[in-house]
User: Fold this.
Amino acid sequence: MGVMSPRILIIGQGLAGTALAWRLWQREVPFLIVDRNESLTSSKVAAGLITPITGMRLTVSWRYDVFYREALRFYRACGKRLKQRFFFPRGYVRLLKNEAEITKWHKRRRDPDMQPFLHRQTPELNAEVIHQPDNGFQQRHAAWLDTNTYLESSRRFFESLDSYATADVKAADVRDDTNGVEWNGQRFSHVIWAQGWSAEKHPLFHWVPFQSALGTILTVEVDLQGEQRILNRGCWLLPRNDGTLRAGSTYEWKFDDPNTPSADQVQTLEATLRSLLKVPSSITASQTAVRPIIKNRQALMGTHPTHPRVAFLNGLGSKGSLRSPWLARHLIEHLLDGAPLDLELDLQGNKV
Ligand SMILES: Cc1cc2nc3c(=O)[nH]c(=O)nc-3n(C[C@H](O)[C@H](O)[C@H](O)COP(=O)(O)OP(=O)(O)OC[C@H]3O[C@@H](n4cnc5c(N)ncnc54)[C@H](O)[C@@H]3O)c2cc1C
Assistant:
């Protein structure tokens, strides 16, 4: 059989697969996206935070500028097409935990790469609501993505194009040769596995050094007295547009069940939240899922070393909302146009 014109099978409708499908739609390339419709996945549970200055080291997140600009354009364009809002730029206040962190921040804040992300004014938090509201800084170009609304409305759109199917795809049922791929009686030019942490068990990708982490996020009831910004000291607190709040999140590197957190992790998170808030709060729900993380990598993508029609996009870690729009475009340009992959992200360069 000859080489067919592009028609791409995407497996997984998380943040990775959804961005891939949109990129193909934008280029008018036909696709089928298949998802097994689990109720708790990393993308459905995620808070969707997009934050420039992160972590204990207080540094600007890897290539933030490039990813953020692309994410902004991408989510706005998708939202416009779907007539739905799910991307919300937001102020983000990071409160410093202790003297060591304050000292570190005084050094860091002068770094030239920080400047575009620093708000000039001090955050001025309400001392009736927040414990120790001083010693913080406000970040610019932060946002949050309502992942459920984005995923749901995108799924409905792909369904309306006859480009969506619900199925649990078995690796053995996807047959490939040098010209293309076959699944469920249909031919495709490529398959892209965008299946999150469960790729650990995929027979073609088990060599990828996954180091995925279980994460829990809480739904909280609290009266923040009008505060709309995202707050963070030890944990983050997100006031969502629907009036609910989320707080999180935990990282567990060893776990037995992908949706059951260990009690002590959740208790620590609750205690951190109480140390942030002066006003009473109650936790009304919690959700747990596994973030797909690849050891020492920001993400990996590309085709399999010996199966040229089988591609992969994974390892989005805690940054799927920020990075998936750029990463998806990059992979599609590689598959369709032969554009070279960024060496840091190339699956084949990271073979072990
Ligand atoms: C508690 C928590 C908090 C988080 N907070 C944030 C945050 O604030 N900001 C942020 O950017 N990111 C956050 N993340 C991480 C972010 O969500 C991930 O980067 C992202 O979800 C990864 O998306 P993915 O599409 O690669 O994987 P997934 O979300 O795991 O998507 C994979 C999809 O593929 C499906 N699938 C798998 N195998 C098959 C198969 N064989 N057949 C059919 N379907 C299949 C799954 O059911 C799933 O729907 C958080 C994650 C967690 C767990």
In short: The longest strand covers residues 281-291. The mean pLDDT is 95. The domain at 91-144+213-291 is CATH 3.30.9.10 (D-Amino Acid Oxidase; Chain A, domain 2).
